[in-house]
């Protein structure tokens, strides 16, 4: 069990480091920043279409305080905008700005290509190959990895 966990951790670290370098070089974004923009870009005006800060924190796997700081930095860069929830004045929502959407459009192919490259490299390592296969089979049919 411990060997499997170590392999999974190694795969995650390799993927994240490779994607991080590519995103930083092409779009001046970290993996976490990209993840926040990506998740928030999927919001919609329908039922349950917007995430509160604690929900966003759960999705991007950060503490609520770290998520709030990250959102503030992205807002300072003009990539996100916050506004009051129209039905609950205590709630604050965050949307991707036009500049944020443009940057995300530029970064998404970089992210996806870096992920494919990192998976290809990891698949060459016998201890990681089964995990790479599992990752590739888990993705939705519309977004092959």
Short summary of the structure?
A two-stranded antiparallel ribbon has the order 1-2.
SSE string, helix = H, strand = E?
HHHHEEHH
Work out the helix count. Answer: 6
The shape is: elongated
Provide the gyration radius in Å: 17 Å
Largest sheet: 2 strands, antiparallel
Strand percentage, roughly? 5-15%
* Strand order across the largest sheet: 1-2
Low-confidence stretches: none
- The total beta strand count reads 2
Into which percent range does the helicity of residues fall?
55-70%
End-to-end distance: 26 Å
Mean of residue pLDDT? 91
> Given the helix and strand composition, which structural class is it?
mainly alpha
